[in-house]
Amino acid sequence: xxxxxxxxxxxxxxxxxxxxxxxxxxxxxxxxxxxxxxxxxxxxxxxxxxxxxxxxxxxxxxxxxxxxxxxxxxxxxxxxxxxxxxxxxxxxxxxxxxxxxxxxxxxxxxxxxxxxxxxxxxxxxxxxxxxxxxxxxxxxxxxxxxxxxxxxxxxxxxxxxxxxxxxxxxxxxxxxxxxxxxxxxxxxxxxxxxxxxxxxxxxxxxxxxxxxxxxxxxxxxxxxxxxxxxxxxxxxxxxxxxxxxxxxxxxxxxxxxxxxxxxxxxxxxxxxxxxxxxxxxxxxxxxxxxxxxxxxxxxxxxxxxxxxxxxxxxxxxxxxxxxxxxxxxxxxxxxxxxxxxxxxxxxxxxxxxxxxxxxxxxxxxxxxxxxxxxxxxxxxxxxxxxxxxxxx
Length: 392
Ligand SMILES: Cc1cc2nc3c(=O)[nH]c(=O)nc-3n(C[C@H](O)[C@H](O)[C@H](O)COP(=O)(O)OP(=O)(O)OC[C@H]3O[C@@H](n4cnc5c(N)ncnc54)[C@H](O)[C@@H]3O)c2cc1C
Prior knowledge:
CATH architecture of the largest domain: 3-Layer(bba) Sandwich
Shape: elongated
Radius of gyration: 24 Å
Strand order of the largest sheet: 16-15-12-13-14-11-17
Largest sheet: 7 strands, antiparallel
Structural class: alpha+beta
CATH superfamily of the largest domain: FAD/NAD(P)-binding domain
Number of strands: 20
Bound molecules: flavin-adenine dinucleotide
Helix content: 25-40%
Mean pLDDT: 95
Distance between the termini: 23 Å
Strand content: 15-25%
Low-confidence stretches: none
Number of helices: 13
C-alpha cells in the first residue's frame, strides 16, 4: 500500500512548487514529485540567472492561446502585486529593468529558496529523482507509480511544463496524461525561439553574427518594438523571440529596421538640399556599421542627386519592411517556452480543473497559455497555480 495524500503535484518547477506550497498552507496533505535531482532548475537559469519573476504591466493581451480569454480569470485573481508582496515578505530585493520586468537583485536561487520555504511551511513532502509513469485513466483516487514508490490522492495537479530545454528535464508526460484522460491538446510548438535563415539568407547574413539593431518585428499581425540580433544561423534578440511565438511554418516576419526614422522623407529632403552623399551614406547614419555595409553591398552606389524617386522609395521600403521567410526555428533546445498544450476548452478557467475529469488539474506551461517575453510566463505559472491550489 502506498502513501496517501490529498494532492499529488507532478513537476517541481515554478507552477508545481507554488501550487504545492499554497495548497499545503491551506491544510492539504501534499506530495510533489520531480524527476530531476533538484527542483526549480528552469527558474535557476531564467532571466540570465536573476529570474524575471513577473511583469507589472501584466495583462491578458500578453498571452497567446487558442482561447485568448481563458487566462483572464486566474490572472485577475493572482496579480503581480500579490507575487511582489510574497517576494518582499521573504526579504528578496528586486529591481525593475525595462518594460515593467522585475528581476532579483541577487540571484534566481532566491526565488527557488522562497518557494521551498513556502513548501516547508505548508508541510509539503518533496520527492526528487522521482521518475513518474502516467497514471491509469481511472477516476479518483489517482494512483501514481514512481521510481520512489506508489502515491495516491484525490486530486492530481499536472505541472510538468512544456518541451523546451530537454536537457534540464522537459518531458511530454503532461500531454500523455491529458491524452490518457481524453483531454485534448493543442499541438505544441517551440516559442520565444530564434529563427533560421534559409540557405541563401545564411550565405548573405551569417557574417553579421553578433550585430544587434533596434527594430519592430511583426508576424501574423503581432508587432514588437525591441532589439534583433543576427546569429550564425538566423535571427534572435527579444523582438525576434517575441515575433517567433506568432510565426507559423512558411510565414513571413516583417522587420522595420528604422522604426524612428522616415528615411524616405530624409533622403528626399537631403536631395532637394543638394547633398552630394550616396543614399547608402545617409542610411548608414541610422544603422550599425556592419549591417549598413552588408545591406548595401550589392548596391552600385550613385549620389543622391542622380537617384530617382522610385529608387529612393524602394530603398526606404526595404528598410522599413524587410521581409524574411525563416526556414524554421532553433527548436526546443533553444526555445524559452512551448506554445500550445492542454486545450483550455477542456479546463475550468477558475480552477484549472479538467471539466470532464474531477480532481485532475493542469497548470503552468503545460497549458495552452503562452506569455510574451518579460516575466509573463512566470506570472502565468503563479496565477494558474494559485487558481488550482485554492480549489483543491
Ligand atoms: C532559459 C530560459 C529562461 C527563462 N526566463 C524566464 C524569465 O526570466 N521570466 C519568465 O517569466 N519566464 C522565463 N522562462 C519561461 C519560464 O521559465 C517557464 O514558462 C516556467 O518555468 C514554466 O513553469 P512550469 O512550472 O509550468 O514548468 P517547468 O518550470 O518547466 O517545470 C516543470 C517541471 O516538471 C518536471 N517534469 C517534467 N516531466 C516530468 C516527469 N515525467 N516526472 C517528474 N517530473 C517531471 C521538470 O523536470 C520540471 O522541473 C524562461 C525559460 C527558459 C528556458
